């Protein structure tokens, strides 16, 4: 048995990891993906294996389809409907959590709380002379100044793309590994970068477990050495 209904609600809980799902079929799919080891379905184009036929179908559409989806707002071509959804969400639609002090819109309550803490907290802060934005520490201001100077001191040694922050370079290097380490524990979709998984998880209903912490240091180190080997 995969799980049980939660009394007084229309939700179901996994009997192994306690994940809460809004529908029984979603719970069943989660159970197969996370708690079984039977990979029945194989992609005939790249040999990637899947436990659920629907995941193989989705993989074929997203990975091996040549039909882009075009944004009707700006004309940007996206790989698939989900990529279009994320693009429109962050490029064209404002977040519903509004800061009462400056009017800035954010997509989650957590982001709003952090914004208020760092931007409006009553304490002495360091101000950027270019735009007036304030910071708690001098090193934060130094990193911010790259927005105005255009400085990008961190370069990829494979494709030479440059980044303003070291963490941005590390996440970028994951694209060159060809691996997708960040896996959604509800639907099984995988992502090469953490930001993709964070945006994707927002479309699932119910209480989700904490975002898993992925160890990427060994992959990043290997990719940084790749050009010299």
Give the helix/strand layout:
Layout: E1 3-5, E2 12-14, E3 20-21, H1 24-35, E4 41-42, E5 49-50, H2 53-63, E6 69-70, E7 77-78, H3 81-91, E8 97-98, E9 105-106, H4 109-120, E10 126-127, E11 134-135, H5 138-149, E12 154-155, E13 162-163, H6 166-177, E14 182-183, E15 190-191, H7 194-201, H8 217-226
Antiparallel strand pairs: 1-2, 2-3, 4-5, 6-7, 8-9, 10-11, 12-13, 14-15
Helix pairs in contact: 6-8
Pairing-aware structural class of the strands and helices? alpha+beta
- Report the principal-axis shape: globular
Rg, Cα atoms, Å: 21 Å
Cross-sheet strand order for the largest sheet: 1-2-3
| CATH architectural designation of the largest domain | 2-Layer Sandwich
Q: Approximately how much beta-strand content do the residues carry?
A: 5-15%
Ends: how far apart?
51 Å
Provide the CATH topology of the largest domain.
Answer: Double Stranded RNA Binding Domain
Helix content range? 25-40%
Keywords: Metal-binding, Nucleus, Repeat, Transcription, Transcription regulation, Zinc, Zinc-finger
GO molecular function: DNA-binding transcription factor activity, RNA polymerase II-specific; RNA polymerase II transcription regulatory region sequence-specific DNA binding; zinc ion binding
Main location: nucleus
InterPro entries: Znf-C2H2_ZIC1-5/GLI1-3-like (IPR056436), Znf_C2H2_sf (IPR036236), Znf_C2H2_type (IPR013087)
Question: Can you describe this structure?
Answer:
The protein is 38% helix and 14% strand. The chain has 8 helices and 15 strands. It has helices spanning 24-35, 53-63, 81-91, 109-120, 138-149, 166-177, 194-201, 217-226; strands spanning 3-5, 12-14, 20-21, 41-42, 49-50, 69-70, 77-78, 97-98, 105-106, 126-127, 134-135, 154-155, 162-163, 182-183, 190-191. The strands form 7 sheets. A 3-stranded antiparallel β-sheet has the order 1-2-3. Strand 4 (41-42) and strand 5 form a beta hairpin. The model has no long low-confidence stretch (mean pLDDT 80).
């Amino acid at each position: 048995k995969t799980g049980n209904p939660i009394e007084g609600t229309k939700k179901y809980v996994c009997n192994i990891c306690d994940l809460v799902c809004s529908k029984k079929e979603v719970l069943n799919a989660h159970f197969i993906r996370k708690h079984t080891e039977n990979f029945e379905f194989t992609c005939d184009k790249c040999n990637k294996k899947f436990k659920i036929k629907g995941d193989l179908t989705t993989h074929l559409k997203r990975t091996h389809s040549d039909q882009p989806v075009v944004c009707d707002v700006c004309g940007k071509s996206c790989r698939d409907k989900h990529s279009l959804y994320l693009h429109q969400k962050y490029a064209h639609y404002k977040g519903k959590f509004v800061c009462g002090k400056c009017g800035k819109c954010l997509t989650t309550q957590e982001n709003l709380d952090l914004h208020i803490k760092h931007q409006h907290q009553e304490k002495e802060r360091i101000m950027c002379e270019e735009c007036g934005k304030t910071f708690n520490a001098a090193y934060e201001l130094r990193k911010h100044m790259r927005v105005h100077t255009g400085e990008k001191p961190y370069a990829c040694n494979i494709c030479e793309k440059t980044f303003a922050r070291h963490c941005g370079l590390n996440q970028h290097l994951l694209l060159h590994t060809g691996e997708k380490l960040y896996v959604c524990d509800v639907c099984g979709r995988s992502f090469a970068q953490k930001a993709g998984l964070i945006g994707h998880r927002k479309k699932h209903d119910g209480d989700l477990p904490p975002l898993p912490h992925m160890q990427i240091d060994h992959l990043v180190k290997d990719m940084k050495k790749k050009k010299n080997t």
